[in-house]
């Protein structure tokens, strides 16, 4: 069983930045592929960014150049730096590894 806890969400104006973190209860960071997903109201949950155990990254086209996924193996945390935020980035952001999901953190971007 792996527990994932996201933090760092909040309300920000368009053009602003936020940094999300995901703390894992087990030693998974750096050992397995992990990712950030988001779900906006009335929409499906979509991949935002993923990082493999080897460190390769992938991003949704809508966030390329603005978001950066990273990890801190020592702290067992997964991070998502979000810059130049847009209103369409408003969603609940979830951390994922295997079949485990956190409860999410809400990001609201005002125009």
Percent of residues in helices:
under 10%
Give the overall pLDDT as a whole number.
96
What is the string of helix and strand elements? EEEEEEEEEEE
- The total of beta strands comes to 11
Output the number of helix runs: 0
What percent strand?
Answer: over 45%
What is the 3D form?
globular
- Which structural class best describes the helix and strand composition? mainly beta
Q: Cα-atom Rg, whole angstroms?
A: 13 Å
Largest sheet: number of strands, sense, barrel closure: 7 strands, mixed
Give the low-pLDDT segments. Answer: none
* Head-to-tail CA distance between termini: 40 Å
Question: Top keywords for this entry?
Answer:
single chain; 111 residues; mainly beta; seven-stranded mixed β-sheet; four-stranded antiparallel β-sheet; globular
Characterise the protein shown here.
By secondary structure, the chain is mainly β. Helices cover 0% and strands 52% of the residues. The chain has no helices and 11 strands. The chain has strands at residues 4-7, 10-13, 18-24, 34-39, 45-51, 57-59, 67-72, 77-82, 91-97, 100-101, 105-110. Strands 2, 4, 5, 6, 9, 10 and 11 form a 7-stranded mixed beta sheet that branches. A hairpin with a 5-residue loop joins strand 5 (45-51) and strand 6. It is globular, with a radius of gyration of 13 Å.
């Amino acid at each position: 069983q792996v527990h994932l806890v996201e933090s760092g969400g909040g309300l920000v104006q368009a053009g602003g930045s936020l940094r999300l973190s995901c703390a894992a209860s087990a030693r998974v960071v750096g050992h397995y592929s992990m990712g950030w997903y988001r779900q906006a109201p009335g929409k499906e949950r979509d991949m935002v960014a993923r990082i493999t155990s080897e460190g390769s990254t992938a991003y949704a086209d809508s966030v390329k150049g603005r978001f950066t996924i990273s990890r801190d193996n020592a702290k067992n945390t997964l991070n998502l730096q979000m810059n130049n935020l847009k209103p369409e980035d408003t969603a609940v952001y979830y951390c994922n590894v295997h079949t485990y999901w956190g409860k999410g953190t809400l990001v609201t971007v005002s125009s």
